[in-house]
Design goal:
Peritrophin-44-like protein, mainly beta, about 30% strand, globular, Chitin-bd_dom_sf, Antimicrobial Protein, Tachycitin, Chain A, Chitin-bd_dom, four-stranded antiparallel β-sheet, 19 strands, chitin binding, 1 helix
Length: about 220
């Protein structure tokens, strides 16, 4: 079990956990053609552009932000004031939070069976899910391992325009272009050594702390 203070420090100096958990954008539906915009299922402020690839439509490799003060409306596929009548953005796709500034109940970055309650901005001692519902999905303990919040390379608000570690590979890292699960397009590998999150660089003297293994991520 983490002590509360230790857990908080780990969150601040480490990338929070697997891009496997990120919901993928979809270029399907009525009226979706080459050049259409579709929602970023992980962040309401962003959208993807559908691009023709042979007979298929595929989302752009990166998402694009709406103008300041607007979010992407899934119905009209345009950036709009989120307070507009009929505005729709489904935020249920990625429901994991790891910081008390984001939610009152947060996931453990590395253990799917543990969660924390936040009081006055600080996490509690880790609370275990019961054996009959062993997996925490961001809101509650349940039975579907595919909804785990653990082992996800994640960009917090403080990580914008910075680098976070690849939780499956000490030698790799991601650039954070937005809050939420990392985008594979921004993945890089150190030419030598391991990635040092604190100093934001590759280092041949920085030790490897293996946070996750492929068997611990949800598919």
């Amino acid at each position: 079990m983490f002590r509360s203070s230790t857990f908080l420090v780990l969150l601040l100096v480490s990338s929070v956990p697997s891009s496997h958990a990120a919901c993928a954008p979809v270029c399907r539906g009525t009226g979706v053609v080459d050049g259409s915009r579709v929602p970023d299922p992980n962040n309401c402020h962003y959208y993807y552009i559908c691009l023709q690839n042979g007979a298929d439509l595929e989302p752009s490799p990166v998402s694009f932000p709406c103008e300041e003060g607007t979010d992407f409306d899934a119905l009209t596929r345009t950036c709009k004031d989120p307070s507009s009548p009929g505005f729709m953005c489904d935020k249920s796709c990625f429901n994991c939070n790891y910081y008390c500034s984001e939610k009152d109940i947060i996931a453990d970055p590395w253990d799917c069976g543990t969660y924390y309650y936040c009081t006055e901005g600080l996490p509690s001692q880790g609370l275990p899910c019961p054996a009959e519902k062993p997996y925490f999905d961001g809101d509650a303990c349940q039975t579907d391992a595919g909804k785990c919040c653990s082992c996800i390379s994640y960009c917090s608000a403080a990580d914008r325009n910075r680098l976070v570690a690849d939780v499956f590979d000490c030698t790799s890292y991601y650039y954070c272009n937005k809050v939420g699960p990392v985008e594979p397009f921004f993945h890089s590998t150190c030419p030598a050594g391991n990635f040092d999150y604190i100093y934001q660089r590759c280092s041949e003297t920085y030790p490897c702390f293996e946070q996750c293994s492929e068997g611990r991520t949800r598919k």
